[in-house]
Structures are given as C-alpha cells and as structure tokens.
Specification:
The chain is mainly alpha-helical and 306 residues long. Helix content is 69%, strand content 5%. The chain has one domain (2-137, 154-289). It is found in: Cell membrane; Membrane.
C-alpha cells in the first residue's frame, strides 16, 4: 500500500511506516521516552531525506509528550515553574538548532553532521547505561548505606538561585537554562525529544524528585518540539504532514501497549534493553560512516545541461 510524501518527494509503504511507528511507540511507552532517537534513524534508513525525517519527527514527539503532560497534570506531578525555566533555554536552543540545521543543510553537510552526532551522543549514553545496568543486575543486594549529608557541588555555588517548591530544590537558574538550551538544540538538529538526557540530569545533578521529573520533562519537550515544528516548517519547509500523521497514529497506539509491558519489568532490565537499543542505532550510523558503499559513485546532472 503505497502513498506519496509530498515534501519528501518519494513514495513509501504506508504499512511499513505505520509498523515502524507502532514499534517505536511500543518502545517509547515501555521505556518512558520520546523515541525520536529511534524513529528518525529508521526513516533515514528507508530512504526518507535526512532533513524531512528530522523535521517530521518533531510533531510526533510533541503529540506523544502532550498526552503524557495531560496524564501527569491530573496527578499534579508537574513543576511548571521549573519547566518554565527550562523552556527559557529550550526555546532559545531550539532556535539556534534550527539555524544550525539550515546552515549545515545549505552547506551540504547535514547528513554527515547528524550521523556523527548520533554516534557520539547515543554511543556515550548507551555505553554508560550499559555499564550501570549490568552492574545493577549482577549485584544481588545493595549494602546498607549509612546516612550522610549531601555534598555541595559546583552547581550549588552558582548565583541567581531560585526556589522550586514542588520539586523541593533551591538551585541557580543558570545551569537549568543551559540544560534546556542543550536539549532544545539537540532536539532541533537530531529530531529527538531529549528525555533520555533531560531526566537523568534533573535527577542526578539537580536532585529533582522522581515523582515530578518525568512530567516536568515531558512539558519541556512538548513546548520545544512544537517550537521546532513551527520553525522547521516556516524556515525550510521540511515538515511532511502526511508522514507526521502516520507517525503520530502509530506512535500513540503502540505506546499504550508498551506502557503495560514496561510495568512488568525491573528498572535494571529496562535500562539494559534501552542501552542496547542506543548502541545498536549508534553502531548502524558508525557502519554507514566507515564502510565503503556498494555504489561509491553517483552522477549529478547540472542544471544547464538539462
């Protein structure tokens, strides 16, 4: 069952794309992440132009995050003040990311930049998660820990501190703005929500309680991905509405089943599987960068020769 993607300018098998969206939605629901790090590469691997794959994944991530925001808001598990500070950097980072995206696209280096970025980011995060989850699975029982005070870090010494009552933290706004900007930049350039980066940073660096960190992260991702969608659509016309609708439909359905499966697995097992997924995607991009293509030459017809 073929359909034509007007912006990507190529026909695709609807069932194939829908099946991929269902699978990625399942993974997203199981791990509690956006899934852009997996869906964007899959679209690239089946022939969708890199620019269109990145831009068209943004509305799918925004739609998935919006459903999560509604669910967590009903539980009053979102710190909107913290989310607002993250958005201050997130929107700026998204705008910078779209500018960099267009700059690399015009220079003809976008595909290489995205491939290298996926190898570095996913390889590093996946490697760290693999080591941590493997150690956690091999450790039978944690030794009883003695109560001790919380050590002050570099982040605690920065100025412009703000108090976030729902998150029960009192930290500087500067690193939060920088974190939001970094996640927004990566989201705009790579077509990822960045939840797998944002959540660990909030938990381990800023000590935000787990009860509010996921909902707050989804709120930030929703707004930044909506901003990325608008910016991509208006500046480079890379958002393919037909493709985005298929992705949103499949992702929403698959996520419902993924949530049920994820609730039956241990946290260490989930982190191990996610680490293997991250490393697999990074390995595929690394292979594309290093292996000699089957057809190393191409013929380009100049405009004046037609």
């Amino acid at each position: 069952m073929q359909t034509y993607l007007p912006i990507a300018e190529l026909p695709v098998d609807v069932l194939l794309v829908l099946g991929m969206a269902l699978a990625v939605g399942f993974v997203s629901g199981m791990f509690g992440i956006g899934g852009g790090f997996l869906m964007t590469p899959l679209l690239i691997f089946i022939g969708v132009p890199t620019a269109v794959a990145v831009a068209s994944e943004a509305p799918q991530i925004a739609a998935s995050a919006f459903t999560g925001v509604l669910a967590y808001q009903r539980k009053q598990a979102i710190d909107f003040k913290l989310g607002g500070v993250l958005l201050g950097g997130g929107v700026a980072g998204t705008a910078l990311g779209v500018w960099f995206f267009n700059l690399m696209r015009d220079a003809g280096q976008l595909d290489a930049i995205i491939a290298v970025s996926y190898v570095i980011v996913l390889g590093a995060i996946g490697g760290l998660m693999l080591v941590e989850s493997t150690r956690a699975l091999m450790r039978k029982a944690p030794p009883p820990s003695k109560p001790r005070g919380v050590k002050r870090t570099f982040v605690d010494r920065l100025p412009f501190k703000m108090r976030f009552r729902r998150s029960m933290i009192h930290v500087s706004a500067l690193p939060l703005l920088a974190l939001g900007a970094g996640v927004g930049f990566l989201g705009a350039v790579l077509g990822i929500g960045g939840g797998f980066l944002l959540v660990p940073a909030l938990v381990y660096v800023f000590r935000v309680p787990t009860a509010v960190v996921v909902g707050t992260s989804l709120f930030q991702i929703f707004v930044t991905m909506m901003a990325a969608t608008v910016m991509h659509a208006t500046t480079n016309a890379s958002v393919d509405v037909v493709l985005a609708m298929i992705l949103m439909l499949g992702g929403a359905i698959g996520a419902q089943f993924g949530v049920r499966v994820g609730q039956t697995m241990k946290g260490e097992q989930l982190r191990l599987l996610l680490a293997l997924l991250l490393l697999a995607v990074a390995g595929r991009f690394l292979a594309d960068l290093t292996l000699t293509p089957i057809e190393p030459f191409s013929v380009v017809i100049a405009e004046g020769a037609r």
